[in-house]
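Page 42, continued from yesterday. The earlier attempt failed because a stray header line got pasted into the input along with the sequence. Redoing it now with the clean sequence only.
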Amino acid sequence: MQDPTTAHSDADSLPPLSRHAVHVFGERGLSPEGVVRDDTLAAEVPVALVFNGVSHAVMMATPQDLEAFALGFALSEGILDAAADCRGIDVHTVDARDAGLPEGMPGIEVQLDISTRSFERLKNRRRSLAGRTGCGVCGVESFAGLDLAPQRVPPRDWIERIDLATVLRAFAAMAPRQVLNAEAGAIHAAAWATVEGELTDLMEDVGRHNALDKLLGKLARAGRLEEPGFVLMSSRGSHELVRKCARLGIAAMATISAPTSMGVRMAELSGLRFWGLCRAPRGVLYADGLAAGSPSASTPSATASMP
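This time it went through. Structure tokens are written below.
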């Protein structure tokens, strides 16, 4: 498949991190007047996703890996059936004045050229997103617009290999690769690990959904969505993260924080193996990802700890 992200991009002029002078008070050893220091902050930029010339969503995102983000979003939201439905991606910065934004707040426009079939389906959808960091259902006009129908994940004969030891091994490798978060904080990560727990890929963004879309887009570009493995998230396990994974056939996910009840139910309906609260030496298996009727399928959600 031709890589659609080889198209022109000038968004590199907007860095993912920025430096700001801040006044620090109350730190041990400081005078009551405090001290002025430079601080590193995570960039948060409005990113417009434009399909065949029609703006569909504006998401607040970190200005990095935006080609992968746009492709992953289009796939995980069901706009595209396959990466090949995207014919090209063009990313460019929009001046704040031209974008109608406050001074010093430029935007980024990501233009995707998609197949006629995909575009016709997109036009027929009533859902219109006006995204905001941490929000997964902004702009939905009705309950039906939530698009909660589960996508069933095909059974995987390796799924029980995604056990606690494997999950914790992968999580232990995440922190050293979260380079943006190490400098600025406030940045989520989505990672991919093999069934042996080897971490192979990690993407960062101020939004957990965006980080996942970046990861899914990267895997899709490389034709790796079918390889055995699982997703790790530095966040809670909400329903839309599960839905995105299930839609693309990802069979297992693990999160550092707790899941929501809807996230667990979505995993159960999708047949996705779902680990949460993964903080060594402990983890909680909320959904086992086993087919109904299998010997272990009736096992209730369990808490496990490493010896």
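Notes: The chain has two domains: 4-146, 159-305.
Reminder to self: strip header lines before submitting.
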